[in-house]
Fold:
Amino acid sequence: MRLMRSLTAVAFFAVLALIAAGCGRDKASSKGDKTFDKSPEERKAETWYAPRDDKKGGGILGGGGSAPGMKDKGVAEMPGAKEIEAREAKAAEAHVGGVTPVGGAGKGPKSGIVTAGSFDDNLDRAPFRSFLKQFGQDSAVRNLPGQFLGHRLVLTVRDGGNRPVGNAKVNIASVDGGPSVDLISRTDGRVVFIPAWDRIAPDADFRVTVTPPGGGNPVRQTVSRDAVEHTVQLPSVEAAPVRQLDLVLVVDTTGSMGDELEYLKSELRSIARAIHDRFPQVDQRYGLVFYRDEGDEYVTRRFDFTTSLDEVRKKVQAQSAAGGGDPPEAVHRAFEDAVDLKWRTSHAARVLFHIADAPPHAEHMNRAMNAVNALRKKGIAIYPVAASGYDPPTEFVMRTSALLTGGQFLFLTDDSGVGNAHAEPHLTNYHVERLDKMMIRLIASELAGKRIPAERGDILRTVGKPQ
Structure:
C-alpha cells in the first residue's frame, strides 16, 4: 500500500511540475532557465519529451512522438552522444504511455507508472443509486445516502453563441417560495442541484435566476421539477476563455504515507510543456493541504496559493509522515482548510485533487460533507483519488464530493503491477489509463470548459461499456 500511495503522489506532483514548467510561471525559470529558448538540436540532446502531431495520434494528452530510446542522427553527431544515449536508455525503462521524465528529476520512482480508472456519476446516474441502495445502512455515513437518492438537476449556463459560461451566479428555489441555494457555474457552465441535499422542496417547479459573471441583467426561468438537465442561455454575454488555474492538492500524511512523502521530495521535475502548448496564456497557482488526525503532532498544515513551484517543493520537503492509527482520519478538517484558501473569484478553473484511502470519522461525516458543499458553492471541482484499501464510506464521500462539484471519481487499479491489491469500485463500466495522463486530461478539460475523453491509445483496459 505504501508503494502504491507513493507512486500516486509522484503522479500528482509530476503534473504540478508539468504545468508550472510549461507555463514559465516559476521564478527560477524567469531567472535563467532557457529550456524553451534553445535550438531544436539542443532540445534533442537535453529533453526526452516528444510532442506529437495531433493529426497522427498521440500529443499532449496521449502517447506518440519518438520513443525515448530511439537514436537520432542529430544526437549521434553531437559531443557527448554516449552519455546522451545512456540517459535515453535509462529514460526508456521508465517511459510509460508517452509521458517521460525530464532530466534532473532526481532519485525515486518516475511518473507514468500508476494506473487508475475514472467515472462521472453525473453522466450515468444508475450506478451511484445502486451503490447507495447497497450501502445506505452503513452507520458511518448516517442518514446522508438518502439525500442523494432523489431528484438531481444538472443545469448548464451558455452564452448567445452556445458556449459554456463559467463563474455565473445561479440561484435556485421552489416557485412556492422558501429557502434557495446559491451556486457558481464551473468552466463548463454546469452546476449540480439536488433538492433533498439543498433543502429545496421537490414537489413544485423550480425558479432559476442566473446572473452573468461580473454582474448584469439576470435571466429568470422556471424549470420543471421533473427535468434532469436544463440550459439557461445568456444572450447578451460572450463567454471568456479561461486564463487562470487554481490547483490544490489535499493529501493524507499519516504514518502509512511516509514513503509517499519521500518520493514527493525526489520527484517534482518531470514532464514539461504539455499544458503550456495547449493553454499558453494560463496563469497557475498551487495550494497544499496536508492532514493527519486528532491527537497527532498536527491535524492539518495548510499552505495557501503560490505561483512558485520551488516554494511548493520546499513545503513538501519540510513534511514528514506519522500518526494516524485507526482508519478514519481528519478529512473534515482538511476540507475546511481547503475552503479557507484564497481561491480566486474571477473566471478561473478551480480544481482540487484529494488523495486518500480512509473516510472521515463517523461523528465528523456531516462536517466533512458541509465543507464539500462550501467548496461546491465556490465553483471548485473536486477530483478524489481512492488509493488501495479504501472502504465503502470512503467511496461514498469521494463519489459524492465529485458528483456535487461536477468532478469525477478516480480510483487506482492493479494494472500497473505494483503495490497491494486495490479495492474494486461499485462500478461495472470504466476505462483504465495512466493516472498522470488522466490528471493532465482532466485539468485540460477544466481549462477548455468541456469534457475531453480519453484517447483510444491511452486506454489500457476497458470494463463493461464505459461512458
